Amino acid sequence: MGQFNNEIWFIGAEMAPLVKAGGLGDVMGSLPGVLLKAGINVRVVIPYYKNIIPQNLIEIKESYPAGKVNFGEIPFEFGIKTGITNRGIPLILIEQNHFFNREEVYGPHGGIYGYKDNLWRFAMLAHGAAYAMRIFGVPLIIHTHDWSGGFVPAVIKQTFGDKKVRLAAAGILNAKLSKHISADGLRPAVIFTIHNLGYQGVYGIDDFYDIGIDFRYNSSSAYEHFGTLNSLKGGMLLSDFVTTVSPTYANEVTTPVFGFGLNGELKNLYNDGKLKGILNGIDLDYWNPKTDNLIPHNLNLQENNYKPKDYKEWKEFKLKNKKALFSEVSLPLKIGRNGKPLPLLGIVSRFTEEKGIDIFLDSLFNWDNFPFQVIILGSGKDYIEGKALYLSEIHRDKVYSHTGKYDEALSHKIYAASDIFVMPSKFEPCGLSQMIAMRYGGVIAAGDTGGLHDTVSDIMDTNTGKPSGIFIKHLDANGVSWALNELYNIYMSNNDEIWGNLVINSANKHFGWDNSAKIYENLYYNIIK
Ligand code: ADP
Ligand code: GLC
Questions:
Q1: In terms of domains, do 418 and 523 share one?
Q2: Which atom of ligand 1 is nearest to the CA of 423?
Q3: CA distance 243 to 356
Q4: Which of 173, 279, 287, 378 has its CA 20 to 30 A from that of 392?
Q5: Are 91 and 44 found together in one domain?
Q6: Burial of 61 (0-12, 13-18, 19+ CB in 10 A)
Q7: Domain holding 412: CATH number?
Q8: Ligand 2 atom 10: residue of nearest CA
Q9: Mean pLDDT in the chain?
Q10: What pLDDT score was predicted for residue 170?
């Protein structure tokens, strides 16, 4: 079965800046870069989609022999390509035009309406990755992600056997392997990260026989779940260790409300010491208000640790970006009392129930003459897109909605311009948008859950001392209105300093990967010890 190399392979469905549908893309695009800088040998394996942004990929023109997998009676060939992203991360790309030569990663409208054959598409990813190991050597560790990476552990085990490699040498992932270690009878260690338990990849159990996975994994200790095929369940149960993307979410998923039917399994993993929450970071070079070239005006401050006096500069930054964005989307700048512009509410989100965008919209529908301007960017459920468009129809001078499409440049402009960033999520495994918004000096109105709980400091919580937003206590339209009204009163008060402090607290929060990357590093070493 070949020899081990000393690499970690990230396997997943998306990766920024090549192709992104949400936060998974950000994580796959940023964490490997941080690990590479720490000297760890990382490669990322993703499908070769049609919509990969070509400027961000340097393809390496070498040809490798094609692989083949049988899905039931039908053989499918696939190709292997390699490349490197414009951020220097080495890639293995699984090329299979029937499955991957499409406009979207998961399906139309940001994947809310998934392609009918996603089961086969992401089974293909797992088979492709295992085949690539014959060409490039077997990595010591596989780090696979979400339900779309859920078939990887089974394919690894059926290819290499159940026995995990052990190499009790610290530094092994940075060093060159001094001797060749045969992968005969040994498999890579597998870590599985759950980014969102709301998507489990559930299909009819009969389909199990058509995805090239050994029948022994059609069991309740793997992919079978109450008579269905559940990719995420098998993925997590067949892996050596499971992580979620924030500490609070790791606790939440062990409860019935957040566990989506897998809380029992997750509780067992937790009790066995095999489940841990590790907070995501963001790419601080990419999301940088001082250098971001997708926004019209950069922040004109040198230092990183902002003082209250720096609010003046932040205020300028917000106002200039707001004016530029308003002129782009044809919104007039509306002035409220005190001569201050109305606070701008920003939304950048997938439109699903979990994100609470519908209750945010209801809050504004119910609010007579609401004192905000609003810019909404998102795609997903038709009825939420429709509601957002309708709100902007009836409040043309106050609301602009851009729905149905992903728009990276507009998202940056919204982060830079908005005073208040709204995320009324019912659950939020981590959430990167609030971190980005805070880095751009936004004050957050959010649900008190998951990664939001771990990253936003509430003005109502007198213990934190450094509030950066408000938690919406009751997640309904009234609750959103209450929270927005609280923030409005602070923003409009005669004393600029209090709002200024919120902005400075937000901007001073540190959301880089350094801390969490170290936790992952330790996990990687421990898993092969
Ligand atoms: P999730 O992964 O659940 O969608 P996160 O907050 O973790 O939520 O990450 C969302 C990421 O996707 C952020 O980088 C956000 O800026 C981006 N994003 C979401 N919707 C859009 C959109 N319509 N256009 C551009 N970027 C978007
Ligand atoms: C998922 C979650 C989001 C998280 C992201 C990256 O899409 O919904 O909360 O930030 O993954 O881990």
A1: no
A2: 6
A3: 25
A4: 287
A5: yes
A6: exposed
A7: 3.40.50.2000
A8: 431
A9: 95
A10: 60
